[in-house]
């Protein structure tokens, strides 16, 4: 009927208002949209920069830049040889171990061998001054059943017998290595359980999205409220971890705690002669406050 046709045209006009570029580009809507688009493949914090310049691929539960869209090979080579080139390696998974140093070294010795080079007990690495790299094997199975290569960093000593160790593993190897670490340290009890949704939005975000989707309403009042509470991107978990599963385990037998810190501790690689200068200009030493 004529009345229904007019109603359809009227609704179409009002819907088109909400699809204007200004509405789509509002920060609070972008955050909600980006969170929704990361349900299957997690983005790195540098994702948008890479997405504008690289062909993106979906690997290991992440969305990663694979190859540049422009011929930037010469520029990258020039940066590597004369300036500084930065790579985002945050898709590498970080496993954190806490406990007594003797107990850590005793069990870690079972999954590596001095015949392959460094071990977790290397003096320069154990002090926390240098990062080490080695190959891991299943417990007491060397030279068979290799799990894969890892890098590790000890937190410098603070006078206590309790130490902290970070092990960085490729996401394809994370589950196998985590399973082996939990086995040798007898960590089966979950210490912390993530019960939040994999993608959550604050009340303010939901309110703003509802305002945008409502037809033909002006949003001056809501915009002012939205400016006060800037939404934060809340992505819980990572491409190799179920957000509803535990991410920290403890053993009451050995006193060791294992935590999956993937996507919580970011990692960047700087290559080039000016790398140290860039770090010096960027990082400022914090004042240490003793209680």
Automatic annotation (TrEMBL):
It comes from the Eukaryota. Coiled coil: none annotated. One of its GO terms (cellular component) is ribonuclease MRP complex. Pfam families: POP1_N (PF06978). GO terms for biological process: tRNA 5'-leader removal. Residues 4-99 form the Pop1 N-terminal domain. This is POP1 protein. It comes from Vidua chalybeata. The lineage of its organism: Eukaryota, Metazoa, Chordata, Craniata, Vertebrata. The gene is Pop1.
